[in-house]
Amino acid sequence: MAATRTFSIIKPDATRRNLTGAVTKMLEDAGLRVVASKRIQMSREQAEGFYDVHRERPFFGELVDFMISGPVVVQVLEGENAVKANRDVMGATNPADADEGTIRKTYAESIEANSVHGSDSEENAANEIKFFFNDDELVG
Ligand code: RTP
Ligand code: MG
C-alpha cells in the first residue's frame, strides 16, 4: 500500500515536560516517519483558526488558551495508512479511556492536556498540513 501523510501536534503539556523526543519515538515505532517538523509558539488567531470546527464547543476557549500556553511541535508524518496509524498510537482523547501503550495513556495529563493532536481524516490532514507548512518544507 502506498504511503500517505497525516498531521500531528506535540502539545504544550508535552513540550513543557521535555517529551518531544519521547513522543516522536512512539510515533516512529508505530511506523510513521517525520517528513517535516518545527517548534512554534502559536498565536491566539492561529489556534482559533486551527480549531475553528470546535468554535461552538464549550471547551473552545480553554482549548485555545491551552494550545498557546507554550510551544508546540507541528509535524507531518508519512507511513502506510498514516491517519489511522497515528490515531491508533495516540489513543483515546481522554487518557482515562486510552489503551495501554498509547501516547495519551503513557503521557497525557488530562482530557485537554492530552499531549498530541492527530488529523482525523485524509482530507483534514491535507488542510492541516497546508495550514502550517509550505510544500518545500516537506522532505519525504
Ligand atoms: P485532537 O483533535 O487534538 O487530535 O483530539 P481528538 O480528535 O481526540 O479530540 P477532539 O474531540 O477533536 O477535541 C480536540 C481537543 O480538544 C480538547 N478537548 N477538551 N475539556 C473537554 O471536554 C475537551 N474535549 C476535548 C482536547 O485537547 C482534544 O484533543
Ligand atoms: Mg480532533
UniProtKB/TrEMBL annotation:
EC number of the protein: 2.7.4.6
Domain of life: Bacteria
Alphabetized UniProt keyword annotations: ATP-binding, Cytoplasm, Kinase, Magnesium, Metal-binding, Nucleotide metabolism, Nucleotide-binding, Phosphoprotein, Transferase
Family matches, as Pfam families: NDK
Reaction(s) this enzyme catalyzes, per UniProt: a ribonucleoside 5'-diphosphate + ATP = a ribonucleoside 5'-triphosphate + ADP; a 2'-deoxyribonucleoside 5'-diphosphate + ATP = a 2'-deoxyribonucleoside 5'-triphosphate + ADP
Keyword ATP-binding on entry: yes
Residues at which ATP binds: 11, 59, 87, 93, 104, 114
Residue numbers annotated as active site: 117
Entry's Gene Ontology molecular function annotations: ATP binding; metal ion binding; nucleoside diphosphate kinase activity
InterPro entries noted in UniProt: NDK-like_dom (IPR034907), NDK-like_dom_sf (IPR036850), Nucleoside_diP_kinase (IPR001564), Nucleoside_diP_kinase_AS (IPR023005)
Annotated ranges, domain Nucleoside diphosphate kinase-like: 3-140
Kinase listed as a keyword: yes
One of the GO biological process terms: UTP biosynthetic process
Swiss-Prot/TrEMBL cofactor(s): Mg(2+)
Enzyme class: transferase
Annotated compartments: Cytoplasm
SMART domains, A to Z: NDK (SM00562)
Any single GO CC term annotated in Swiss-Prot or TrEMBL for this entry: cytoplasm
Entry similarity comment: Belongs to the NDK family.
Biological role stated in the UniProt entry: Major role in the synthesis of nucleoside triphosphates other than ATP. The ATP gamma phosphate is transferred to the NDP beta phosphate via a ping-pong mechanism, using a phosphorylated active-site intermediate.
HAMAP family listed in its UniProt record: NDP_kinase
Assembly with partners or alone: Homotetramer.
Protein name according to UniProt: Nucleoside diphosphate kinase
Organism: Qipengyuania marisflavi
